[in-house]
Design goal:
The protein is α+β, with helices and mostly antiparallel strands. It contains 22 helices and 34 strands. It has a 7-stranded mixed β-sheet with strand order 4-7-2-1-13-17-15. A 6-stranded mixed β-sheet has the order 16-19-20-21-23-22, sandwiched between helices. The radius of gyration is 36 Å and the shape is elongated. The two termini are about 50 Å apart. The structure holds zinc ion (ZN). The site of zinc ion has 4 residues, from helix 9 and helix 10.
Length: about 850
């Protein structure tokens, strides 16, 4: 009901023509109602089966860009020549471009609408406080505000002109720019225009953007070094689509990008000692690489393990100096929807060929670029994870179609672009000069490389609309990266199982997965984890691997290098699996219901035989099994009843009770049997002879989300078996259902467990047990904390404290380490023991 358009609500009951639409009566909720009325109407561009239609089209946008990095000013200056081909059936009088750098302007919509205490922006959250506590501002947030105030950010658009150089009218609207064409662009026509632009690059660590520079002040080189990660760096065409027209929605920072495919030639001019990694293939290696580097790249093509193109020692040597000369790296990329690059003199570079086979792209070069700060984690796992990702993802979708796949270390935690990804994990420098890392950092590296390389499939090739639907790329990709992670090493806790989403599913901050990206609360669980779990359940529990994998591959192939919408995904998965999944999309993607199926009661039934000599006796036994009323029991024990004291008065009814059988009942039974058809008598006789166990199981759906009811049945003989009931059992009553199960006489049911393997993200597993069980849990000891507050200080004593200087490890400069209970140990600076953290630290 909640999906009915609002306009029906007032008239639905009054107007007979709308009677067919009414789906709700009393408590009835139609959880299996088909989604057709919610999904867009099929047309010649998108079929009702979720495929590109016979007149499917998309625009083609080719770029030729010259860009120069001014390292000392941390500024990009560029000119781009864009060739736009209108494949739509519409005439275009203007074009929209995305000016993403304008999000950093102090007057941008994103800056002006950031809410205090809101974690919605990618970056450090401010804390609105609560109760008696003052609100808080993190040091990171203060640094961000200072950086934004100190720097002039956003695009400087120097020229917009036709290919022939004639100025074009253009209007900047926040993070968008409209270019008014000199002549209308008819269907099938192309036009060329030029945009000259420049901007100051943001410091990633200060601003927390999706790209930027990272400064390394401690490098030996005077003034230190930077790693530059450049993305959303050139004015990119907004997508023009069959379902929305121009996708010109303001960039608020969260919802990512809606882009067109095209071919790129990009000339990147950087300091001569920089190493550049970029979307595409390097087309002038002779101009920028040494002979040794080119030989090593050749060697890497057939190597079993990554080969250093630039060794750690060479990178260390390189980062010590600097140069005033420049060099231009030329990259070319075909059929990509974006272009990103990275540049630094700090990069170690390794490479390994991936022999994929097939016709599409038999050979792919996997490469990683990272500073010494990523070692030894990166040389061990980065390029290996790149190759592993392609192996797994290709099996689920299509062969990796590009010549390179790269992983670059820098300040961005994780971002994806065609053929290139930015990944953040680092290692810690210890006092003895070695570098170490935690299990979490190792998991982060392998996990983030798989995830970001996986994004080259979704959404860089299966080009979904990221600005609208984060789940379409993050959800599908997180689902597959969970598969790939487990195929890498199932012993690493990837935290992608159904049980990992239950806290979110029952929370008050849940919104439907089908919510526009910028409005989602808690993006991680909403757009990553919940769709991952949903698809995992679809694959492992509802469809099974064979049907799911076929349908998912079909979706990937249908929409490879095309632009799918949510409806195309939903429809293809149904179309290709042959299973109606509307209830599943409705529950998991359009609602905030959660899974909580309870088994409330189990009845054991015994079939009456109709034979009074059997049935009357059974009923007498049942009566005797009931507890005697306490008063009757006590009167009997006292032996003071009339009949006890006067046994001589016993009569017929003291020998016979209400269950005594007479020939009257026996004749009725004989008459009944004689009147049966042969088949009726046979069925009855067999049922009586078998005397099977009949059980009625009562379930209630506490969470609201309809799901299969997965049962583990245990019997008195010690055996157990699975009995899975499809979700359709809830189709007439989504709140409570009863199910009859029949077992042979010797199979006596002793226990029922719902979802024994925690497959369905059921939020309360205790009501899954019949009979209920004692719940195992744990309790911690704790020590009451000392009182806090200004008035609880012993100022009379504290006033005597000596003033000290501290180093960055928190040790006092001058030699004394503070031990416990104030005692000092005489240890030289830098070797003070780390303070011990308690368990909660
Ligand atoms: Zn992602």
């Amino acid at each position: 009901m909640k999906f009915l358009p609002v306009l029906f609500v007032s008239s639905i009951f009054a107007h007979p023509a709308f009677a067919a639409i009414q789906q709700t009566k009393g408590d009835f909720v139609d959880t299996f109602r088909q989604l057709d009325e919610v999904l867009p109407t099929a047309n010649v561009y998108r079929t009702a089966g979720g495929e590109p239609g016979h007149e499917y089209w998309q625009q083609q946008v080719d770029y030729d860009i010259d860009v120069t990095l001014d390292e000392s000013k941390r500024r990009l200056t560029a000119t781009q020549r864009v060739s736009y081909t209108n494949n739509s059936p519409d005439t275009l009088r203007f074009l929209w471009l995305q000016l993403d750098q304008n999000i950093f302007r102090s007057d941008s919509m994103a800056e002006r609408t950031t809410v205090f205490g809101d974690a919605s922006r990618r970056g450090p959250a401010t804390d609105g406080g609560g109760g008696n506590k003052p609100p808080r501002l993190s040091l990171g947030e203060l640094r961000r505000q200072q950086f934004m105030a100190d720097n002039e950010l956003g695009y400087q658009i120097n020229r917009v002109a036709t290919g022939a150089g004639r100025a074009l009218d253009h209007t900047i609207v926040g993070t968008l720019m409209r270019i008014d064409l000199a002549d209308p662009l008819e269907p099938g026509e192309s036009t060329t225009f030029i945009v000259d632009f420049a901007f100051n690059i943001v410091e990633e660590d200060a601003v927390r953007a999706r790209a930027g520079y990272e400064h390394f002040p401690d490098d030996e080189r005077e003034g230190g070094n930077d790693i530059f990660l450049l993305a959303q760096w050139f004015p990119r065409l907004a997508a023009y689509t069959d379902y929305e027209g121009w996708t010109n929605k303001e960039f608020l920072g969260r919802g990512e990008f809606t882009l067109e495919f095209g071919d790129y030639t990009v000339d990147i001019t950087v300091p001569a000692d920089h190493v550049v990694s970029a979307t595409g293939e390097l087309s002038n290696p002779g101009a920028v690489l040494t002979d040794t580097q080119r030989d090593r790249l050749e060697e890497a093509r057939t190597a079993d393990r990554p080969v250093f193109v630039i060794t750690p020692e060479e990178a260390l040597e390189n980062e010590r100096e600097g140069t005033s000369e420049t060099r231009t790296w030329r990259f070319e990329a075909e059929n990509v929807r974006d272009f990103a690059w990275a540049s630094s003199r700090k990069f170690i570079w390794d490479a390994q060929g991936f022999d994929q086979g097939g016709d599409v792209q038999p050979f792919v070069l996997a490469m990683s670029f990272y500073p010494k700060e990523g070692e030894p984690l990166w040389s061990n796992y980065s390029t290996a994870s790149v190759i592993h990702t392609m192996e797994v993802y290709s099996r689920f979708s299509f062969d990796y179609p590009y010549p390179t796949a790269q992983s670059v270390n820098g300040p961005v935690g994780g971002m994806e672009y065609p053929m290139i990804t930015f990944n953040g994990p680092r290692t810690d420098l210890q006092d003895d000069g070695t570098r170490t890392y935690t299990l979490a950092e190792k998991r982060f590296l392998i996990g983030v490389v798989i995830h970001e390389i996986g994004h080259i499939y979704f959404p860089m090739i299966v080009n979904s609309d990221e600005r609208q639907w984060t789940w379409m790329d993050e959800g599908l990709n997180s689902f597959l990266d969970a598969v790939a992670g487990k195929e890498w090493d199932p012993d690493i806790p990837w935290k992608t199982e159904p049980r990992d989403i239950v806290d979110y599913m029952k929370s008050s901050y849940q919104v439907p997965i089908m919510t526009q990206s910028d409005s989602v609360l808690r993006l991680g669980p909403n757009a990553y984890a919940k769709p991952t779990v949903a698809l995992t359940i679809l694959r492992e529990t509802i469809l099974g691997r064979e049907l799911f994998d076929f349908a998912f591959r079909e979706y990937s192939r249908r929409w490879m290098f095309k632009r799918p919408t949510p409806a195309d995904f939903f429809r293809t998965m149904e179309e290709a699996s042959g299973v109606d999944l509307d209830w599943f999309w409705r529950g998991w993607f359009y609602s905030t219901d959660h899974v909580d199926i309870s088994i409330d009661r189990v009845w054991k039934l015994r079939l009456d035989t109709k034979d009074p000599d059997i049935d009357f006796n059974r009923r007498r036994e049942e009566e005797l099994d009931k507890p005697l009323p306490l008063s009757v029991q006590r009167d009997r024990e006292a032996g003071q009843t009339w009949v006890a004291r006067n046994p001589d008065l016993d009569d017929f009814y003291d020998e016979n009770d209400e269950f005594t059988v007479t020939n009257k009942e026996r004749n009725d039974y004989r008459k009944f049997v004689a009147g049966l058809e042969d088949w009726e008598r046979a069925a009855m006789e067999r049922a009586v002879a078998e005397d099977a166990n009949y059980y009625v199981l009562e379930f209630s759906n506490v969470g609201g989300l309809v799901m299969p009811v997965l049962l583990e049945l245990t019997f008195a003989d010690g055996t157990s078996e699975r009995y899975d009931i499809p979700a359709e059992i809830w189709r007439r009553n989504a709140k409570e259902v009863k199910k009859l199960l029949v077992f042979p006489k010797e199979k006596e049911l002793t226990q029922v467990v719902v979802d024994p393997q925690w497959e369905t993200a059921d939020v309360d597993v205790e009501n899954n047990h019949y009979p209920r069980r004692i719940v195992p849990s744990r309790v911690e000891m704790y020590k009451a904390p000392d009182r806090e507050g200004l008035e609880y200080r012993d100022i009379m004593q504290d006033i005597k404290t000596e003033l000290k200087e501290y180093d960055e490890d928190g040790n006092p400069v001058g030699g004394d380490c503070e031990g416990e209970d104030g005692a000092s140990a005489d240890v030289s600076v830098g070797t003070c023991p780390e303070p011990e953290l308690d368990d909660e630290g």
